[in-house]
Please model this.
Amino acid sequence: MLDAALREDFAVAMGLVLAATSLAATVSKVFLKDATFAARCDAADKVLCPPLFAVVGTMACVASWQLHGTVELRWSGETFVSRWCGLIYCAKMALDVPVQSRPAVWSLPRRASRRS
Model:
């Protein structure tokens, strides 16, 4: 079971990633006015991912350096940076699943309705 602090921190991380995703979607909507919704979603993802993964990668490097002391620290240690690196990455992946599966699901042909 997850402790309450971890659940609260994950909710904050989800909020941060959702806010960044919304900002990227707004930017893509401004620049791609005539594009389809799917194209705007893909553009928003492409605008958001490079800076987000640069931040997560930098946090991972800092956390690795902070935890390099002993084998126990490397496997079970936690710092502020390592915790938030994992939280932000997991939040992005949790929000990415519906966004990345959307084009495949929403582009399926609709069935013709049957009238009796």
In short: The chain has a mean pLDDT of 84.
